[in-house]
C-alpha cells in the first residue's frame, strides 16, 4: 500500500517479493589488457645457456694435445688427410 499524504490512501496492492533476482550484468571490459609478466634474456645470458648444453671437457685429452702441439708432433700427414676428407664430405 502506498500512502500519499495524510488523507489519500490507495487500495490493496498485489503481494510480491520486494526484491526480485535480476540477472547480473557481465562486467564490461575496461579496455585495458591484463598485465602479464615478461622475461627478456640478454645475449650473454643466452650464450651461457647454450654453454650449459656443451659436453663435458676431457681435461686429460686437452693436456695431451697441448703437449703434442708444444712438441711439434700433433700435426701429421695422416691427421691432415682425415681432416681434409671430412671437410670435403661436409661440403659436397
Task: Lay out the secondary structure.
Elements: E1 3-4, E2 8-9, H1 43-52, H2 59-71, H3 77-91
Strand content: under 5%
Main beta-sheet strand count, sense and barrel state? 2 strands, antiparallel
Order the strands across the largest sheet as they lie in space.
1-2
The helix content, as a percent range, equals 40-55%
Work out the number of β strands: 2
Give unreliable regions as ranges.
none
Distance between the termini: 100 Å
Mind telling me the C-alpha Rg? Answer: 43 Å
Could you say which structural class the secondary elements and strand pairing correspond to? mainly alpha
| Average pLDDT for all residues | 82
Number of helices: 3
Query: Can you tell me the overall shape?
Result: rod-shaped
How do the SSEs run, as a string of H and E? Answer: EEHHH
Amino acid at each position: 500500500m502506498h500512502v500519499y499524504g495524510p488523507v489519500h490512501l490507495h487500495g490493496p496492492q498485489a503481494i510480491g517479493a520486494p526484491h526480485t533476482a535480476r540477472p547480473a550484468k557481465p562486467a564490461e571490459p575496461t579496455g585495458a589488457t591484463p598485465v602479464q609478466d615478461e622475461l627478456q634474456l640478454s645475449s650473454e645470458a643466452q650464450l651461457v645457456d647454450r654453454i650449459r648444453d656443451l659436453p663435458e671437457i676431457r681435461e686429460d685429452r686437452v693436456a695431451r694435445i697441448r703437449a703434442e702441439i708444444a712438441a711439434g708432433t700433433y700435426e701429421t700427414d695422416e691427421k691432415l688427410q682425415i681432416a681434409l676428407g671430412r671437410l670435403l664430405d661436409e661440403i659436397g
